[in-house]
Amino acid sequence: MNFGFSITPSSTINLDKVDRTMFEHLHEIEPDVYKCMACGSCSSTCPAGRFSGMSVRKVILALQRGREKEAAGMLKGCMLCGKCSMVCPRGINTRHLILSICRIYNKEQQ
Amino acid sequence: MKENIVIIGGGVAGLEAAARLIRLGYSPIIVEKQDHLGGHLAEWHCLFPDMTPASDITAHLVGEVSDANIFTSTEILFINHLKDSYNVMLSNGISIITKVILFTTGFRLFEASRKEEYGYGIYNQVITNRDLEHWFNTGEDARISSKPMEAVGFVHCVGSRDEKAGNAQCSKVCCITAVKQAIEMKKKFPEAMVYCFYMDLRMFGKKYEDFYISAQRDYGVRFIRGRVSEVSENIEGKVVVKAEDTLAGKPVRVTLDLLVLMAGMVCNPDSTKVASMISLQTDSDGFLKSKDNIMDITSSSRSGIFYAGACTGPKTVPETLAEARSAALDIHNFIESL
Amino acid sequence: MRERFLTGYNDFVLPFLFGMAFILTWCLVGMIRIIIRLPREDRRRFFLSFLNPKILLKDIKDIICDCLLHVKLWKRNKLLGYMHSSIAFGWFMLIVIGHIEVFFYAPHRAKLLYFPIFFRYFMAEDDSTMGGAFFFFLMDFFLLVVLSGIALAIIKRIHSKFFGMRRTTNPSFMDLVGLYSLWSIFPLRLLAEGFTADISGGSFLTKSLNSVFHAFLGNHVNMLPTWWAYSLALCVFFCALPFTRYMHIPTEILLIPLRNAGVKIRHPRKGYAEAEVYACPSCGVCIDACPMGVMKTHIKDTTVYLNRQLRRHNETRIEEISDKCLLCGKCTAVCPVGVEGDRLRIAQRSLRQYNITPDYSCIDTDALVRECSFGGQEDGKVLYFAGCMTALTPQIRKAVESVLTKAGIRYEMMDRDGGICCGRPMLMAGRFGPAEEMIRKNTEIIRASGATTLLLSCPICYRVFKENYSLDGIEVIHHTGYFDRLIKNGIIHLGHTATKYVYHDPCELGRGCGIYDEPRAVIAAAGELVEADKHHKESICCGGSLGSLTLGFDKRQAMTANALNNLTKASPDSIVTACPLCLSTFHRYADRPVEDIAEIVDRNMN
Questions:
Q1: pTM
Q2: Which of B17, C53, C235, C236 could anchor a disulfide with C181, C-beta 3.0 to 4.6 Å?
Q3: Which residues are within 8 A (CB) of B317 and not within 5 positions of it... i.e. 6 or more apart?
Q4: Average pLDDT for residues C560-581, to the nearest whole number?
């Protein structure tokens, strides 16, 4: 039946309902993930960003918000060149962080 | 009064402390490494938030200390700890026995060439905040062309909040200095686009927020939340800056005529060197360690050694002046109690 | 010579025979296992290599030089070399001369495996032949040689510094069993032959021992137990061998022909990798070589411990050790048996399972080709690929471009606005599939650009372009080599200054690709070249390597400081390198200028 309108999911991120399991798991392996201050250095230096929209900053944010699929989509573009680790002002080992996310990400659950 | 007081450093803190001590009846000795007094302030053009000419303040401070013993172009060779006093040996051959030493050794501007990705020392279009002040003062800088500029960029936090550069601390004054310099550039080149690339804007002081609002509303300075990661040069000899506009979530690139790096404050290595002669501790940020960071910022762990100004961490000029006065009072009380 | 016993047998030979049978079976099974688990084409290559006289000759030469004479150890330290070769070569000669004796004096016993080993017990000299005395002399001589080696080995255990080793391996329990049984074999043999010296005869060592200690050695009651002890020591050593580091002795004999046949690590655990793991003698030369060794906590992450954990199948530690390594390749360069610590680790990393697989299909190579294509079809076009890391050290790119422009060389940049990563960092992480995809994409771009020379500034890129790309017809060259050629061909001229430069060999350029001379020639043309304390293949990694997956930024400073310390021994004015990563790493902590070779060329060009 068409009522002339549809109900779209709310665009609000409800922090009360965010599933943080994966992020917490990631935090256990990579305690430095909390150090990100979202300066964007990694994203702007990333050679893959030009082709695929890869951004470590956004990946971390997406995981914090429980949007794992979105994070996985971005990570597919990563070339692991390590430039993001070089520029990170907080000294986060982003390269290992990326590998860890790629490992613990569970395809079936998404 | 007979008690000797040695003040190491003739910058804002040293001059103000000396002036106050003179008023209290002492005759302090100022030891300054450079050939002139005033420290970093002597190189600055004008100060936030009221655009006060820096030269006025320097002249005032220097004028107040005309009665002090001043040794310029003089360094500390060594300091010995005697039984209840210190023996300070100067490079001009004079040695002073004193019970009181005031460290007003200040800071050093981060060496911007160490962040090679920003291209300082590589591209002519990249200068530092100090270079820009020098240009404001003298109008002389071979790197800056006389032609009107179309676009100018400011990079905040160069060598501050940066573990890779070995300085995790915030330099406190760069945000507001960038706002001030951006306004000055905009006044010189009203047609130019002026961008500030920041991570966080820290407008903590009196009238800073107003200043920031004015930069946005009255001068149209564009603030982009994102740290610059790379700088390159294009064929026309302009610099191309890459950053992420983190608010838009998109990488941005912009072509600029001039890029100004807001080099942060780091501990003055000379200050650490002198401090180590009498085994004074440095804090985790590399600056000198106060006895207590809240209650006793002007005291060191050693009796008779006092601190004032940016030798204990980044500070603004008014903060430094206040600390210098407070240190002068502490020294007075210390001498009284001897 | 006469036989002392008609049977030519005594029960004490049984332990030896048992040990010998055990170890021979073990080695045979192990060898078959390794060969069977090689990929088919590698196995074919291995068997065919024996038909090639050149390779066969090299096999024999290498086995003699490496396994018996330990030439590489001699080069490292004379005392260490003597210690190893005295035991290996001495023992080998004892066996060979033993067989010759049997062949000459008791040919009918030649089929008895134990006879040469216990020759002095079964055969007695009758002073009639000069030959007998001659062989007896040789046997005593080589026994003395081995004993001197054992004595040095004991001293080394206590004080390794005499042997030029700051640190040595911590032996495992089984290693100690092997060690003590090996140490006891030869003194026991001396004692046993000392007992029989007045019956069977002997030479300067055994005979004099017998006469000096006649009161004890003349008493034949103790004779048989000593021969038993000698045989038992051999048995214990042989039976413990597979579980100790001494397994390297037989394994190396297999590793050498495998290597000479061109076999490479293709599986992290099977085949060639397994041969390398068991060929590790646990000598610990890699411990001092490892740049991470400046911090004591990393000592157990060196290659010798990786091999030990691989033998024990301790997966947690294998992963830790493999991921931490900087892949500088120094352990491989100094290893006396040729264990490739870096490749072995990359192979372990390839075992990791990832649930997100990269996909680069969205990269449009056509657009990238348009950015760097040359018009026209003339020869000698240079395509310059600065690389990801060079984007963060713009001084290198600027200098290279400036030199090319001034020299009038026509070039295009492949990554002016950023390009596709070369693939080496991905390879280093053990993810071969995605790396190959990047290699394919880059190959497409390079081929389509019409270039004949690919110029690189980053040794990391240079290595992968050399090793993993097939760019036939296109010359791949690092800017150090390119500038050297420009100077040699008189295309550019450098003004000579009195500046004192020290050159740091980047891991990937030096040990990785063997480029040592070209950069030095370029620097020597521009100023005075001095060497670091450790240089060429012994150069110390800057600590900034992408090879390590887990080492955080804060853990690397000590390594950089150590590398800088090594570089500044000759008090140079300036540190020169040829790698963007080394440049930015050193720049962070150096007390003097750090430059890329390109900057020097650019500055000194007339």
A1: 0.91
A2: C236
A3: B12, B41, B47, B57
A4: 96
The rounded distance, in Å, linking the Cα atoms of C66 and C85 is: 9
Minimal CA separation from C449 to chain A, in Å: 20
* Residue pair C115/C1 in contact by the 8 Å Cβ criterion: no
Question: H helices of C381-495, where?
Answer: 394-406, 424-428, 432-449, 459-467, 479-488
Please give the residue that has the higher pLDDT: either C449 or B262. B262
CATH code 1.10.1060 for C250-349: yes
Optimal mutation site among C411, C579, C588, C589, interface B, most CBs of chain B within 10 A: C588
Contacts of B163 in chain C (CB under 8 A): 553-554
Q: Measured between beta carbons, which residues in chain C are less than 8 angstroms from residue B232? A: 391, 394, 397
Output the CATH code of domain C486-604: 3.40.50
Judging contacts by C-beta atoms under 8 Å, the chain C residues touching residue A54 are none
Domain ranges of chain C: 2-36+69-243, 250-349, 365-485, 486-604
CA of C287 vs chain A CAs: smallest distance (Å): 25
- Which residues in chain A have their CB less than 8 angstroms from residue B228's CB? 41, 44
CA torsion sign for C422, C427, C432, C434 is: negative
Q: What are phi and psi of C290, to 5 degrees?
A: -65, 125
Q: Which CATH number fits domain C365-485: 3.40.50.1860, 3.40.440.10, 3.20.20.140, 1.20.1050.10?
A: 3.40.50.1860
Range of the domain at B247: 112-264
Instruction: Please give the ipTM for the structure prediction.
Output: 0.91
Residue pLDDT, tens place only, B48-106? 999 999 999 999 999 999 888 999 999 999 999 998 899 999 999 999 999 999 999 99
- What average pLDDT does chain B have? 94
Q: Which amino acid is at C159?
A: H
- Nearest CB neighbour to A87, from listed C353, C359, C392: C392
